Structures are given as C-alpha cells and as structure tokens.
Automatic annotation (TrEMBL):
GO terms for cellular component: cytoplasm; DNA polymerase III complex. It is found in: Cytoplasm. GO terms for molecular function: 3'-5' exonuclease activity; DNA binding; DNA-directed DNA polymerase activity. The keyword DNA-binding applies. Confers DNA tethering and processivity to DNA polymerases and other proteins. Acts as a clamp, forming a ring around DNA (a reaction catalyzed by the clamp-loading complex) which diffuses in an ATP-independent manner freely and bidirectionally along dsDNA. Initially characterized for its ability to contact the catalytic subunit of DNA polymerase III (Pol III), a complex, multichain enzyme responsible for most of the replicative synthesis in bacteria; Pol III exhibits 3'-5' exonuclease proofreading activity. GO terms for biological process: DNA strand elongation involved in DNA replication. The lineage of its organism: Bacteria, Pseudomonadati, Pseudomonadota, Alphaproteobacteria, Acetobacterales. This is Beta sliding clamp. It comes from Pseudoroseomonas cervicalis ATCC 49957. Keywords: Cytoplasm, DNA replication, DNA-binding, DNA-directed DNA polymerase, Nucleotidyltransferase, Transferase. Residues 253-374 form the DNA polymerase III beta sliding clamp C-terminal domain.
Length: 375
C-alpha cells in the first residue's frame, strides 16, 4: 500500500477515529487504526468492540492499493505535529514490514499488526431508519447528557434513553437521562420513519462521539437502529455502536405532577449568584440553600472551614407568589441545568424536601427533575 494525502485532510479523519480507540486495553490490535487505500479513497476504521467508526477520505493519490494497521494515537500525534500544508506519504511494503511515513524532510516508521487480526464489528440488520437535522440531535444530546450516570453498577443508566412516544396527540422523539439525583427529559417532533423504533439506551461514550461529529456536519444525519445496535452517518463518517442491554426505569413515575409553587428567575442572575455563594465551599457537593418569599430569593452556602456566603435576588430578577420555602440543592447540579437554559428558569416546588421540577420558560418541552439535599 502506498498513497499520499494532504496533512489537514488526514489529520481531520484521524482525529475522528482515534478518539474511539481505548488508550489502555489488553488486545493490542484495538490500539490500531486500519488504513485501506484504493481507487483514490482512503478508508480509516477504528473500534473498541463496542463502537466502530469508519471514515472515507476521497481525493487521495493511491500509488499502490492495499491495507494495513498502525498505532492510532501515535499516528495522530505525528500528523498533528507536522507543519500546515505538508504532503504526507504513507508506504507499506506488506507483511511485517513497518509503515513508512514521509513528509518533506521528516521520515519515520511505525510497527504494524496484521490486518487479519483487526476485528470486524458488522452492523447486522438495522430495520429502523430516519434522518435527523444536526441541530436537533445536538439539542437532544446537550440538554440530557449531563445527567447520564457514571455509576457502573447501574449500567442501564449509563446512557441516554431514546424512544418514540406521544404527547397530547403529537408524536415526539424523546431523550431521557438520569443518575438518580437529577433527571433530564427533552423531546422534539418525531422524524419521519422513526414511528416503529424500539426504545434504546445509547451509551455515554457513543453520545460523546456523535455530539462531536454533529458539530462538523450541516447535512441531515442518517440514523439506523435495531434492538441491539445503532448507527449514525455523518456524510463520509459512519459510527456504529452497541446499545446498552438493559431496561431503563419508568422515569415518568419520578416526575412530580402537583408542584404548584412557581418561581421564575433570570437565568444569568441566578447562575452567577449560585457560582458566587458556592465558592465559599471546597466540598465537591457544595450545597446551596434557596430561601424563597414573595418575589425574593436568598441563596446561602456555608463551609466549616471557610465561613458563609449569601446573596439576595429581588423582584427585578425573581417572580414568586407562594408561601416561604427553604430548600437545598447541589451547586453543580443547579449549574448543569441552568447551562441548558437561555433566559428564564422556572422552578416548580412542592415543599422543601420533595423533588423539584425545573423547566426552560421558553422551551417547556425540556424538563428537569432535581432531588433536594439537606443544608
């Protein structure tokens, strides 16, 4: 195999595929990217056996067709450090011969592993398919991924639950994530072709990869799925992932329905105040107490070592018309939710110890549930 390609083109493709590769694994071939060159196209493939990513790079000058594998992270770092505008030539004579890389006066060689050892993660049959605009996919991911659990023992919470449902007679595509302390639920109009899709749990790593790729495309993303796998096509890049084999909890049961004490607050004023008062504590959980009364909100935080901080927001930023309430939340959880909201945050309380509902006043279809904590 022998081909030459512009450094910028190769670097972009390597950046996509190498991020899937696990840095530490017990199977050496999984640290490699497979390179296949023929008919003016270079195809790069990487997998960790849970996710596979394949990218076609057109416009490559192929002198000798062929395939090989090379260490993904090392190849990426070398290409990244080459000068802009460089022409990269890769040459592999076959067999156990190293992969030679040349760019201008720079030359190196990389050890390869047999192509035959590279695992194939076949898609299989993916009977359900639809297209989704990149902006809509970003919306679903951004408003929910922060609530994905990192607790491996509750593996069925380690992803976003994606499913079709109906709300007030309207069919929607809904994304839900929860870690037991907070829940995020957002919905968008159901894309054509998604009506019969099964409810699936898309793993956290896959969510992060598709979010990065969604930033780089302006065209509709093609989604195909079955009960066990899902694939996303971003132009010349296709990412296929196994789904989490588990049952997502009945999340609707934990969303309060009768919270009737409503506070509306300016997002920026609230987020800034939370950040300031929480700075008094070095604790990871950093609890912040919200004390509400008529059109007034006081935020307080304290630390045994550092002291106490307090800030009051008045009726210029706060609207609240119910009885006094005191309730505490983890500062980071409040920040994660307010980060998803543009201007006005609506809190729906029941009392100082019950779960609180938070919505974007301008986009009520994005809903969050937050468990209080003692302060």
């Amino acid at each position: 195999m022998k081909f030459s390609v512009d450094r910028a083109v190769l670097l972009k493709a390597l950046a996509h595929v190498q991020s899937v590769v696990e840095r530490r694994n017990t199977i050496p071939i999984l640290a490699n990217v497979m390179l296949a060159a023929q008919d003016g196209t270079l195809t790069l493939t990487a997998t960790d056996m849970e996710i596979a990513i394949v990218e076609d790079v057109p416009g490559v000058t192929v002198s000798r067709a062929g395939r090989t594998t090379a260490p993904a992270a090392t190849l990426y770092e070398i290409v990244r450090k080459l000068p802009d505008g460089a022409k990269v030539e890769l040459d592999h004579a076959g067999g156990d011969a190293p992969l030679a890389l040349r760019a201008g006066r720079f030359a190196t060689s990389l050890m390869v592993l047999p192509v035959e050892d590279f695992p194939s993660m076949t898609e299989g049959k993916l009977p359900h398919g639809f297209q989704i605009p990149p902006a809509l996919l970003r919306e679903l991911v951004d408003r929910t991924k922060f609530a994905i659990s990192t607790e491996e023992t509750r593996y069925y919470l380690n992803g976003i639950y994606l499913h079709a449902t109906e709300v007030d007679g309207q069919k929607v595509l809904r994304a839900v994530a929860t870690d037991g302390h907070r829940l995020a639920r957002v919905e968008e109009p159901l894309p054509e072709g998604a009506e019969g899709m099964p409810g699936v749990i898309v793993p956290r790593k896959t969510v992060n990869e598709i979010r990065k790729l969604a930033d780089e495309t302006g065209d509709a993303i093609e989604v195909k799925l079955s009960d066990t796998k899902i694939s996303f096509a971003f132009g010349s890049v296709r990412l296929t992932s196994k789904l989490i084999d588990g049952t997502f909890p009945e999340y609707e049961r934990v969303i309060p329905r009768g919270n009737d004490k409503i506070m509306t607050v300016d997002k920026k004023a609230f987020a800034d105040a939370v950040s300031r008062v929480a700075a008094i504590s070095s604790e990871r959980s950093r609890p912040v107490k919200l004390s509400l009364k008529q059109d007034s909100l006081t935020l307080t935080a304290s630390s045994p070592d550092q002291g106490q901080a307090e800030e009051e927001l008045d009726n210029g930023a706060v609207s609240y018309g119910s009885g006094p309430i005191e309730i505490g939340f983890q500062a980071r959880y409040l920040a994660d939710i307010t980060d998803q909201i543009a201007e006005k945050v609506e809190f729906r309380f029941a009392d100082g110890s019950a779960p609180t509902v938070v919505v974007d006043a301008a986009k009520p279809e994005a809903l969050y549930v937050l468990m209080p904590m003692r302060v």
